[in-house]
Amino acid sequence: MSNVLEGKVALVTGGSRGIGAAVALRLAREGADVALTYEQRADRAADVVEQIKAVGRRALAMPVDSADADAMSGAVDRVAGEFGRLDILVNNAGVFLVGPVEELGPAEFERTVAVNVRAPFVASKAAARHMRESGRIINIGSNIAERAVFPGFALYAMSKTALVGLTKGLGRELGGRGVTVNLVNPGPTDTDANPADGPNAEMITGFTALGRYAAPADIAAAVAFLAGEDGGYVTGATINVDGGFTI
């Protein structure tokens, strides 16, 4: 455990499980107080909170539907108010709605765009009001944005590709304030939604250069780098943590 982020406050959306939970815990171990949002499984969110507190950091879990723009903005303001500041925002929450394009209707489209695109925009807009010099906004995308090897991913890939533009645009806009904005694209990662021992895991692994899935901690390590001082001269960048999936 280090104190690289001592005195910092972070908000991780979708932080109750998988990559989000790993990011929340890594930032806490680096010294940050951490708030997180979740939509379901309050028990898992509570468990992450307890783990954060166990390393001596303040923690807060908030039930938020990321598709609700007012709730998302309100969560950011609440963190800044209760913790006294906001230094790091990790836009991790997302939905994964896939299928043949003919079968994806307006409801799937609206939900995907609301959670995967609008929510990061809304949260970043709210965070920018509170961030000081050395603020960090880190978006979590997907390797699918750069290499869609399976059919049925058009909607999801579109939504994650939008984060490239958001990252670059905000990076330019907020750079003068000393706030960096970056994008991390995970590749196949061992989570509940895509387990490394799942039915398609062997085929998915075959697309990587390293021949294995990532652990959520691998993604969290990249986020921690960007959140800390060592990542202070990186902005508007996309970092693929995908085991060579997009080579």
Describe this structure in words.
This protein has 247 residues and is α/β, with parallel strands linked by helices. It has a single domain (9-241), classed as NAD(P)-binding Rossmann-like Domain (Rossmann fold), CATH 3.40.50. Helix content is 42%, strand content 14%. The chain has a seven-stranded parallel sheet with strand order 3-2-1-4-5-6-7, with helices on both faces. Helix 3 packs parallel to helix 4 (106-130) and helix 4 runs parallel beside helix 5. The relative contact order is 0.15.
Short description:
The chain has 247 residues and is of the alpha/beta class.
Instruction: Tell the overall outline.
Output: globular
Order of helices and strands: EHEHEHEHEHEHHE
- Give the CATH level 1 class: Alpha Beta
Give the strand tally. Answer: 7
Strand order of the largest sheet: 3-2-1-4-5-6-7
Q: Quote the beta fraction.
A: 5-15%
Pfam families: adh_short_C2 (PF13561)
Protein name: Oxidoreductase
GO molecular function, one term: oxidoreductase activity
Family: Belongs to the short-chain dehydrogenases/reductases (SDR) family.
